[in-house]
Structures
1.
Amino acid sequence: MSNIPADLQYTRSHEWLRTMADGSIEVGISDHAQHALGDLVFIEVPEVGRELAAGEACAVVESVKAASDVYAPVAGTVVAVNAQLAGAPQLVNQDPYGAGWILRLRPNGDPGQLLSAADYATLATD
Amino acid sequence: MPFIPHTPSDVRQMLEVIGAPDIDALFDEIPATLRVQSLAGIPEALNEMQVMQLMQQRARQDGRPPCFIGAGAYEHFIPSAVWAIVTRGEFYSAYTPYQAEASQGTLQTIYEYQSMITTLTGMQVANASLYDGATALAEACLMAVRANRKSKSSRILMPRAVNPHYRAVTAASVSGQGLNLESVDYDRGSGRTLIAALQAFDGQDITALVIQQPNFFGTLEEVDQLTDWAQARGALVIAVVNPIALAVLTPPGEWGSRGADITVGDGQPLGCPLSSGGPYFGFMATRMEFVRQMPGRIVGRTVDLDGRPGFTLTLQAREQHIRRGKATSNICTNQGLLMVAGTLYMALMGAEGMARVAETCMSRSHELVEALCSLPGLRLAFNAPRFHEAVLWLDRPVAPVLEALAARGIEGGYDLATHYPELGHALLVCATEMRSSADITHYANVLGEILKSEQTA
C-alpha cells in the first residue's frame, strides 16, 4: 500500500500539491507514481518564470524504462524548481513528498480538478 | 512472395476471434475511393535471372565514367576488407537488432562507431547513426529547439551556402512543426557566410545557427567567428561536416571558444559506395548536457551481475517505443549496415590514413582547378580556401557542356543554375583521391575541345 498523506491534494495523473504559507503551490509526484516508474535517473524541470496552463506538461520524470510527463495541476507561474534533483533524481524515489518535490507554482487561475487523499487512494488502488 | 508467416487457417481463426468476415473488412474505414485497386505502371514480375540480366545491361549503359561531381556524395577508395566484413551474416541487417542485448557483437560495433565519431568531431557523445546527412540536419534543428530552452522563437538561421538538398529536406521535415528557417546569404566574392550577413539578426531571439564546413561550394567557412557570434547571442551552433575533411580540419567540438553544440553529417565518404544516391548513413554528436534531447539510440558499456563487461542500449526512455508521439523523434532508426561499413573504414584507415586521404583530395582538387582554369572561358568563382570542391565560372550555360562531357564519358560536375541562379554559369567540381592526374588531364583536354567547338557556345 503506497503512502498517501491526508494533508495533500492529488490529481488523476498522480501529481500531489501542497499549499505553502505564502500561497504558492508545491508539486511533486505521488509515492504510487514513483513506485510504478521504478528507479528514476533524470528529472527535467521547467524554467523558472514559465507560465503554465492547468494540465500542461511541465516536467519529465525518466526512469531506466520510461520517461513520463508531469502535468501542471493548476494554472500558474513557475516560481521555483528543485535544483537538487539534477544531481540526485533518486530523491523522488526516496522522499516523494519531501525532498523529492519538483516545482513550485504561483497559481493564477481556477484550480483544475483536484482529488482528496481519500479519492486518490481509491484511484491508486484501482 | 508475400512475407507473411500466417497460414490461411491461422488467418481464418484470427478473423473468427475478432468477428471479421475477411481481411478486406479490416480496412472498411478507408473510403473505397481512396483504396488502390491495382498498381498502374508496375510491370509483370521478373524472375531472378531476368532481373540480373536487366541490371547488368543497365550497369553497362552507365559505364565507369570518371566522376568529378561531388555536391554531397563523394567517391573514395573503399578497402576490400570493409564490405567483406560488412556482408558477413552476423552484421547483415539494416537495424539495431531487436532483443538488442542478445547481439553483443553488433552493440560493441555501434559503441566503437560512437567512440570514433566523438573522436573525429571532438564532441562528447554520439548516437548510433541516423538515415543520412540531410535528415540528420533536420533532426538537429528539432533538437536545437528542445535543447535551447532560453530561446522561444524556434528560429534557425540557415545559410544558403548549406547543401540545398539538406535545406530542402530540413524545410520539409520541420516546417510543419512550427520551426522557422531563416535564409542567410553568402558573400559573392568568397563564397562564405559572413558575420555581416548575420548582423541583420542582431538583438533578435535566434535558436540556432547552422554552419556547414566545408560549405556546399567547397569553401571553408570562418567557423570560429561564426560560432562565437551565435553563442554570444544565446543561439546554439549546429555544425554540418564532411567526415573525411575532419581528418585535417578543426573538429566542431573546438570551434570558437565553446565548440559547436550539435554536429551532424553524412557518413557516405566513410566506406559507402555512391550507389546511385544511397543508402548512406547520417551521424550526430553533441555535448553531454544535451544528450537527453538527442534523437535515436545510444549504446553504452556496462558490467553484468558478475562484473563482466558488456554493451547495452542506454538512454532509450525517450525513444518512440516508450514515448510514442512524445519521443525525441519518430524517424530516427539507425542505418545499421552502413554504420558498420563506416566503422570498419575508420578502423582500417586510422587517423593517419584518413588524413592522407583528405590531403590527397585537396591536392587533386587544386590540380583539377588549375588544369580547368588554364582553359579559355573558365575561371575560379571564389577566392577563399577550399577543401576538395570548387565553383568555376564558364562563359556559357553549364548544362549543354555537361551533356557533351557525358557523351565523351566524363561526369564533369554539378550545375549550380537550379539552386544558385544568381551565380550565372557556375559549375561545382570535385576531385577526390580517386581521380588520377591522368583523369584530370583527360578532363581538361576533352573540355577544351568541347569549348572550342561551336556546339555548346
Note: The mean pLDDT of chain B is 93.
2.
Amino acid sequence: MQYIIKVKHSERCISCYSCVFACSRHLFNSVDPSRTAVFIESDRTASKAPIVTLCRFCKDPECAIACPHDALRALPEGGITLNPPKCSVCTTYDCVKACQYNALILDKNTKIPILCDKCGDCAKYCPHSVFWYTEESG
Amino acid sequence: MERKDLFQKYIGGVGVASKLLLEEAKPKIDPFSPDAPIIITIGPLTGIFPCMSKSVALFKSPLTGNLGESHAGGQFANALRFSGYGGLIIKGAGKTPQIIKIQDNQVDILPASSLWGLGTSTTERSLSEPIRDCIQSVATIGPAGENMVAFSNVIVDRHHHFGRLGLGSVFGSKKLKAIQIIGTSGVELNDPKAAKEMYEQLNNEVVTTDKMYKYHHLGTSGNILDLNELGALPTRNFKERRFEKAAEMSGENFAEKMFRRKVTCDSCPVACIHLASLRVKFAPEHERGREEIAREEVLVPYNYEPMYSLGSNLGIGNPEAITRLIQRCGDLGLDAMMTGTVLSWITEAVEKGVLSVNQIGDLNPKWGDPEGVFTEMIDNLASAKHPFYAKLAQGLNRASEKFGGIDFAVVLGGNGLAGYTTGYGHIIGTLVGARHSHLSNSGYSIDQKILSGQKTIDDIAMFLVEQENWLNITYSLIACYFSRSIYSADTTIQTLKSIGINLTEEELKEIGKNIFHNLYTYKQQEGFDLEKEIIPKKLKELDTPLGKIDPKVMDRILAQYIKIREREGLKIRKDSSVLKDLLFQDK
C-alpha cells in the first residue's frame, strides 16, 4: 500500500513526534529521531507552530539534479529513486544541500539519504490532522 | 556508570532513583551542600510508547527537609533516552555559574555567567539550538532558584516544570543555571512486530477513545467549574469552597478568551498543555506625546493548579490577571502552587492582624485585588532580599513558626496543598504521600467516590496504600499520571512484555511497595515522623461537600493507614505512640 502524503496543516502540529517515531519504526525497526524521512523543527520562541517537513515528491527534483554519481534519479511521476552502490562513493552529499525545502537527510550510519517510501505511517499516527493522505492508485 | 542491577530490580524512574538517593545522599546532608545529589531518571518505556513522556528528579528537598521528588514532561525524558542514558546523577557545585551540556556521549560543564540573573524564557531561548532530527531539551532555573528560594522550580522546555519541593534552589546552590541535552541516538526494537502492534493498540486507546478526552479538550482547567459545582474549589485561602467568580476563571472562559494553541510533551499525542495568549503592554501610551499601540504577546501555560492557587485561592477571577501571575512565577522560576499558598497566607495574616503592612514591605494585599501588590510580592519572594520574604523563601512552615499564623498556613509535610476541598482522602493522602502531593495517591479521587456512595471513609486508608504502591510502578515506566487509566496493570504487563520485560502483577505490586518503602525510609532517615506532623487548624476544621472535617475521624484514618503500612513491614510508629490505643481498637 502506497500513499500520497502532504503536510497540509503544519500549524496544527503539537510537537508529539508521533510521525517521526512511526517513520523510524517503519524504516529501521527502531525508535530514532535521527533516522527518519519526516522532521519536526520547533520554533525557539514556541509562539509559532513547529515546522513539519516531508519530501514533496517533486517533478524535476533539485536533489537528483545535484547528484554527481547518478545515484539519485528522478521518477517520471515525481519523487526520486536511489541506487545505493552508486551513492556510497559520495563524500560531498550535494543532494542534501541542494534541496531548498530541507527534506533530505543522510542515514548517519550508512551515509546514504533516507527516502520516504510512502507508507503513510506518519499521517496515520498523527493525532492532530497535520497530514493529508490518500491511497495511491496503480 | 552501568547499573543494570537497579533497572532489573526497580524497573526505572522513581524506583531506580529511590535506591540511588539512599546510596548517594549522606544522611542528614544539607540540601545545599555540594555533595547533595540530584538524581534524574527515566524508564524502559520512555520514548517508545504513547504518554511515556516524563522524567523524575529525586533530591533532598530544602522545603520539607526530607524527600524531594519532582516529575517533568517536555522533551527532557526523550532527550535523555535518545542520548543513550537511563539517568543522571549530579553532584558537586561550581564557584561561578555554569551549565551542563550533554550531546550523546559528550558531557560538558560549561561556564555560563552570561546567563545568571536571566528569566527562564530568555535563558531557554539563548541555549536552545535550531536543530531537527534529534531531540533537544533545555531545563533552566530563574532568579528564584539562583537565590535559593526553597520553592523555586526548574522550567523544562518553556512550558513544563520540575515544579515542586524546590529543585530550583538545589540547582542554584550548585550555581547550575541549566541542563541542555541533545540526543541523536535511537533505540532498537528487539521484537519490532510486538512493539509496533503494542504501539498501535495503545495509540488507538489514547487517541480514539474518551479516556484522554478531558485533557485534550479543555485540559485540567475544566476542573474549575466541576469542582465549583461539587463545592470543592478552594477559595480565599481555603476559607470557602465555592467561588462567586468561578465562571469567569473557568476553563471554558479561558478557552474562549485566552486560549491560543496546544502543545504536548514528546511521545504524547494528547496535548494537555494549553497556552494562553497574554498581551503584554510594553510602551506607555502617549510616548513622545503620541498614543501608540504597543503590545507584545507571551504564551503562558494554564493548568488547574496554578489557576486555583493564583486565582480562586486569592479571590481573583479575572483570567488575564491570573495568567499574568502565572507568567510572573514562570519567568522567575517559582512554583506557582506554593507561591499562591504563600500569598494567600500573607493576605489572611494581614487581614487577621498577625502581620502588619509595614512588616511586609508596606504592601497591603486584598482578596481579589488582581495586580500590583501580589505581583510585587512574587518579585520579593524571588529575590528573597527583604527580611520578611527571605524568611518566607525558607518555606511557609518555617515562616509561620516565626511570624505566627500556623493555623492557616495550609501546608502538609511542608508542601502546599493541591486545589481540592473534597474531604479526608485528599488531606490524609497529601500528608502520608511520600512527596506530599495529590499525585502520590489520588486522595481527592476516593473522596469523590465516597460522595457518590461507591466507597466509604473506612476504604480511604487501603485505597491510599494501594494507589501509592501502584503509582510507583507508573512512575517507574515512566508514564504520565494522566495516562493512568490507559496503563492498567494488564496493559502495563503487556507493554513491558512487548519490549522483553516479563513481570507479573504480583511482582509489580511488590516492586511498587518496595519503592515506597525506599522513599519512606529516606524520609525517616532525614527526620520525618508521620505522627508528629502538624495538620493546620484550617484543615482540621475544613468544610467539605461531605460536611465539616472531624479531627477524630482523621486520626482514625491515619491509624488505619499506619497499621496497613506496618503490616507491610514498614516501621512508622516510635515505641511511645499516641495512636497505639486507636490502632488496637481498630479491626
Note: The two ends of chain B are 48 Å apart (CA to CA).
